[in-house]
Design a protein that fits this description.
The protein is an alpha+beta fold. It is built from three helices and eight strands; from the N terminus they run H-H-E-E-H-E-E-E-E-E-E. It has one domain: Sortase, Chain: A.
Length: 223
């Protein structure tokens, strides 16, 4: 065998090995996250929350104001204040992204292995402020893989154990990772989603900002 042929074959084997290794790694992270999401959904059901149901089966009150924050502090805020890192923060449903996932508290390495995480330095979903949620695009089930498909006017639903927060996308853009001002407080209650961009790179952050358009209490069955 000529030296050039031997080198070509050796390089081919190296690239094949790298490809197989990457496939194995991404597959393993998906299995780990799938297991965590399944466990979190079981915990959500044990909370007795109707938000564990399929989105189409969740009864949302149509009475009262469109932005109904009645008992918000004694319900949602009290629930969130009692959470530890990695606990269930809520549920995120985005039809455009074909996404229905559990969000946890925190964006540490261990937190984001479970699913998207609430950025704890940002506001809670509620009557004011800018709530930040970050997630992976290529590993750990890649919940935000399709984040760049969102366009202005798309609907984002976030469920707490007590109510549904409905947001409408108003802008999308990219920034460098140091531009943390995307989480600055806003006049209109806002949800900011972030993920690395482009896929398989941490060079930029893809940002989606959505403003609140409706907040409705969840109705327990029989109400």
């Amino acid at each position: 065998m000529r030296p050039r042929d031997a080198l070509t074959r050796a390089l081919g084997n190296v690239f094949l090995g790298v490809a197989v290794g990457l496939l194995g790694y991404y597959g393993l992270t998906s299995i780990l996250s799938w297991t965590e999401q399944a466990r979190l959904r079981q915990e959500l059901e044990h909370l007795g929350s109707v938000s564990a149901s399929a989105p189409d089966d969740i009864d949302v009150s149509t009475h009262g104001p469109a932005l109904d924050f009645t008992d918000w502090e004694s319900q949602d805020k009290a629930y969130w204040d009692g959470l530890a890192e990695g606990d269930i923060f809520g549920r995120l449903v985005i039809e455009r992204m074909d996404l229905d996932t559990i969000v946890v508290k925190g964006v540490g390495v261990a937190d984001l292995k479970k699913g998207p995480g609430w950025v704890t330095s940002t506001a809670l979903p509620g009557p004011s402020g800018n709530c930040g949620i970050s997630g992976h695009r290529t590993t750990y089930l890649a919940p935000f893989r399709r984040i760049d498909q969102l366009v202005s006017g798309d609907v984002i639903d976030f469920y707490s154990p007590y109510r549904r927060y409905r947001y409408t996308v108003v802008r999308t853009f990219t920034v460098t990772p140091d531009k943390v001002e995307v989480f600055d407080p806003t006049e209109v209650p806002t949800l900011t989603l972030t993920a690395c961009h482009p896929p398989y790179s941490a060079r930029l952050r893809y940002i989606v900002q959505a403003e609140i358009t409706e907040v409705r209490p969840l109705q327990q069955s029989g109400e």
